[in-house]
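quick one before i forget lol
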Amino acid sequence: MSTITTDDVRHLADLSSLQMSDAEIESLRADIENIINYVNQLDELDTDSVEPTYQVTRLQNIWRSDEIDAGGVSRQQLLALAAEQNDNCIKVPKVL
């Protein structure tokens, strides 16, 4: 069983550039410890009869054709919905 110390959590906080109070560090330490203990329970599972897999759908290389689907709407109909347009383009306010 792993033990996570408050120094470990402080180190993680420093690496993440997080400023944490002592209470937050202790709370996070307890949470991380609980998560690790939960994951360690998986080591106790008997998986000898489980077939290894990297995915469950058994589908491989499902491709779709690369075709434009206009959805029955023309460029002019879409441009007509825009508040402003210029040279067949939608004109929007400057952001930067």
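fyi The domain at 6-44 is CATH 1.10.20 (Histone, subunit A).
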